[in-house]
């Protein structure tokens, strides 16, 4: 019974050094309180300790072989090499731990957990202002819809810039479009989140991103229509109605989550102003035909705006010219 | 294990066998080390793989060959040729002409990366590079459309040519989207296919729009 006892003893040793049920608090990263991440940490550490043991046993075996015929010099070289090895191991371990914690795409996964029907419902809801503002309204913290809307806005903007013959001097068309849309979405969301923090509103960053992103649905519709049908007054109608509806919805939701008249006023005023002005900016900055028409307002005896198209297909050029002439004549 | 201590082999059965353990089947790489083969063989093998994938894109059947051995040679060649053909504006024009080379490159690769991340976040089972491979190869119909557009524009830039280009680009755009959907949508849970298809649609739409609005200086 000597052999079986030794075998069982070895098994026990393995169990004890492989991991303990006691969590060493000073080694814990205080990143989150979720037990899921704690379990992941413990599991990772157990794995690494096993690997370390294997590495050490291998290195130990190697050392015994080499130290025998290298003598004193060999021993010092061995020590240096082992120290360097250990530092490398520690560094690698920390880097891989940080990487697996922060660069993990799974952090974003819960925000993309949607069904197509939900996305459609939220898109339609974003145009319907809520009536009940005394009870905090629910905002879905979802990022798929807003992200897709931002990309759609980029595509629509590109189309508008191209057909209106916009000249971008520094930078490229695509870069400007992406920069404008993403800059608005991320920048205004952050600014509004900061204001909400100052005004004690109950809203998180993801919810703010989601709210503003879905508010861009109105912008997409307006720009899609008015970049193709170039009536000046049509744009103003769309700006007021469509832009106004989506602004009202966002404002109502924010109001329902804020207490105090001054705070409500600040938040809603800022959001409404930024949202509506952005739509105005998108239309005027990237729509040269409209700018040309504004020129004709300065003098009634000026000639109708003659566009010198550079590379626009003849079909739309004729339409644009006719439109410009008719509007200038009716003013 | 005391019960096994007295296992013994009966004397009348001869014990025989090989002392050395056969190593088993080599993988083809170990059998003929590909370092020693002539360069032509290596290139031809890679070219054949790329060519086979092009054929798969032309006739999008649900086969897994495109996904299994992914490679990025085909997407690179297509992307470079598309970007070269889209470089329309003459060098001495003082305003920004058509999309520059770097712009097209960045759009295609950045767009493909975003779509891949999106499909992974939505619960897709396909790997990062496999998805990049499929999206890159499915740009091929649009490259063909660009070629056709350039040829049509050599003949003239009137309304008729615009309509021809519109039809060609529209057809190729539909083909690209269908081909990539055939490969990518299968890796998603069935009720979320629309969520994955929409960004692909947008991506190829932007590329088609760049092709359609291209006019040489």
Automatic annotation (TrEMBL), chain A:
<feature type="compositionally biased region" description="Acidic residues">
    <location>
        <begin position="49"/>
        <end position="68"/>
    </location>
</feature>
<feature type="transmembrane region" description="Helical">
    <location>
        <begin position="143"/>
        <end position="161"/>
    </location>
</feature>
<keyword id="KW-1133">Transmembrane helix</keyword>
<feature type="transmembrane region" description="Helical">
    <location>
        <begin position="211"/>
        <end position="230"/>
    </location>
</feature>
<feature type="transmembrane region" description="Helical">
    <location>
        <begin position="236"/>
        <end position="256"/>
    </location>
</feature>
<keyword id="KW-0325">Glycoprotein</keyword>
<keyword id="KW-0472">Membrane</keyword>
<comment type="similarity">
    <text>Belongs to the YIP1 family.</text>
</comment>
<protein>
    <recommendedName>
        <fullName>Protein YIPF3</fullName>
    </recommendedName>
</protein>
<feature type="transmembrane region" description="Helical">
    <location>
        <begin position="265"/>
        <end position="286"/>
    </location>
</feature>
<dbReference type="GO" id="GO:0005794">
    <property type="term" value="C:Golgi apparatus"/>
</dbReference>
<keyword id="KW-0221">Differentiation</keyword>
<dbReference type="InterPro" id="IPR051521">
    <property type="entry name" value="tRNA_Mod/Golgi_Maint"/>
</dbReference>
<keyword id="KW-0963">Cytoplasm</keyword>
<dbReference type="GO" id="GO:0030154">
    <property type="term" value="P:cell differentiation"/>
</dbReference>
<comment type="function">
    <text>Involved in the maintenance of the Golgi structure. May play a role in hematopoiesis.</text>
</comment>
<feature type="transmembrane region" description="Helical">
    <location>
        <begin position="173"/>
        <end position="199"/>
    </location>
</feature>
<dbReference type="GO" id="GO:0005886">
    <property type="term" value="C:plasma membrane"/>
</dbReference>
<keyword id="KW-0812">Transmembrane</keyword>
<keyword id="KW-0333">Golgi apparatus</keyword>
<keyword id="KW-1003">Cell membrane</keyword>
<feature type="region of interest" description="Disordered">
    <location>
        <begin position="1"/>
        <end position="69"/>
    </location>
</feature>
TrEMBL record, chain B:
<dbReference type="GO" id="GO:0005802">
    <property type="term" value="C:trans-Golgi network"/>
</dbReference>
<feature type="transmembrane region" description="Helical">
    <location>
        <begin position="134"/>
        <end position="156"/>
    </location>
</feature>
<feature type="transmembrane region" description="Helical">
    <location>
        <begin position="162"/>
        <end position="184"/>
    </location>
</feature>
<dbReference type="GO" id="GO:0000139">
    <property type="term" value="C:Golgi membrane"/>
</dbReference>
<protein>
    <recommendedName>
        <fullName>Protein YIPF</fullName>
    </recommendedName>
</protein>
<feature type="transmembrane region" description="Helical">
    <location>
        <begin position="196"/>
        <end position="215"/>
    </location>
</feature>
<feature type="transmembrane region" description="Helical">
    <location>
        <begin position="101"/>
        <end position="122"/>
    </location>
</feature>
<feature type="domain" description="Yip1">
    <location>
        <begin position="57"/>
        <end position="210"/>
    </location>
</feature>
<comment type="similarity">
    <text>Belongs to the YIP1 family.</text>
</comment>
<keyword id="KW-1133">Transmembrane helix</keyword>
<dbReference type="InterPro" id="IPR006977">
    <property type="entry name" value="Yip1_dom"/>
</dbReference>
<keyword id="KW-0472">Membrane</keyword>
<feature type="transmembrane region" description="Helical">
    <location>
        <begin position="70"/>
        <end position="89"/>
    </location>
</feature>
<dbReference type="InterPro" id="IPR045231">
    <property type="entry name" value="Yip1/4-like"/>
</dbReference>
<dbReference type="GO" id="GO:0006888">
    <property type="term" value="P:endoplasmic reticulum to Golgi vesicle-mediated transport"/>
</dbReference>
<keyword id="KW-0812">Transmembrane</keyword>
<dbReference type="Pfam" id="PF04893">
    <property type="entry name" value="Yip1"/>
</dbReference>
């Amino acid at each position: 019974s000597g052999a079986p006892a030794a075998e069982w003893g070895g098994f026990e040793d393995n169990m004890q050094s492989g991991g303990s049920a006691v969590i060493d608090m000073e080694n814990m990263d205080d990143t989150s309180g979720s037990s899921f991440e704690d379990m992941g940490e413990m599991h990772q550490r157990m794995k690494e300790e096993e690997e370390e043991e294997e590495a050490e046993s291998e290195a130990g075996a190697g050392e015994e072989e080499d130290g025998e015929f290298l003598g004193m010099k060999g021993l010092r070289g061995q020590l240096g090499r082992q120290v360097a090895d250990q530092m490398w191991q520690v560094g690698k371990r920390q880097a891989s731990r940080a990487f697996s914690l922060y660069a993990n795409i799974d952090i974003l996964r819960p925000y993309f957990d949607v069904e197509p029907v939900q996305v459609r419902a939220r898109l339609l809801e974003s145009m319907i202002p809520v009536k009940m503002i005394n009870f905090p309204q629910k905002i879905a913290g979802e990022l798929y819809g807003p992200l897709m809307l931002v990309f759609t806005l980029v595509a629509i903007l590109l189309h508008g810039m191209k057909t209106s013959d916009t000249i971008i001097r520094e930078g490229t068309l695509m870069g400007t479009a992406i920069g404008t849309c993403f800059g608005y979405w991320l920048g205004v969301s952050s600014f509004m989140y900061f204001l909400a923090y100052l005004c004690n509103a109950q809203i998180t960053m993801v919810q703010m991103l989601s709210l503003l992103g879905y508010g861009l649905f109105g912008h997409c519709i307006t720009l899609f229509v008015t970049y193709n049908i170039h009536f000046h007054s049509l744009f103003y109608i769309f700006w007021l109605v469509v832009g106004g509806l989506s602004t009202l919805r966002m404002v109502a939701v924010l109001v329902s989550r804020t207490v105090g008249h001054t705070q409500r006023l600040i938040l809603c005023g800022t959001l409404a102003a930024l949202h509506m002005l952005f739509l105005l900016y998108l239309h005027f900055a990237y729509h040269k035909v409209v700018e040309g028409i504004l020129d004709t307002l300065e003098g009634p005896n000026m000639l109708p705006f003659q566009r010198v198209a550079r590379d626009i297909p003849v079909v739309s050029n004729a339409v644009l010219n006719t439109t410009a002439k008719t509007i200038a004549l009716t003013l | 294990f005391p019960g096994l201590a007295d296992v013994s082999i009966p004397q009348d059965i001869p014990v025989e066998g090989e002392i050395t353990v056969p190593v088993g089947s080599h993988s083809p790489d170990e059998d003929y080390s590909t370092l020693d083969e002539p360069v032509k063989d290596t290139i031809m093998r890679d070219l054949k793989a790329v060519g086979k994938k092009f054929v798969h894109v032309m006739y999008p059947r649900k086969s897994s060959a495109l996904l299994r051995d992914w490679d990025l040679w085909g997407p690179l060649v297509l992307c470079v040729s598309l970007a070269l053909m889209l470089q329309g504006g003459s060098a001495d024009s003082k305003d920004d002409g058509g999309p520059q080379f770097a712009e097209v490159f960045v759009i295609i690769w950045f767009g493909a990366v975003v779509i891949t991340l999106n499909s992974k976040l939505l619960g897709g089972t396909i790997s990062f590079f496999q998805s990049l491979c499929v999206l890159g190869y499915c740009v091929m119909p649009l490259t063909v459309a660009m070629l056709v557009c350039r040829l049509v524009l050599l003949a003239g830039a009137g309304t008729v040519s615009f309509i021809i280009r519109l039809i060609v680009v529209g057809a190729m755009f539909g083909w690209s989207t269908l081909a990539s959907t055939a490969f990518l949508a299968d890796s998603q849970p069935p009720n979320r296919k629309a969520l994955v298809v929409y960004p692909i649609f947008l991506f190829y739409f932007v590329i088609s729009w760049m092709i359609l609005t291209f006019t040489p200086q």
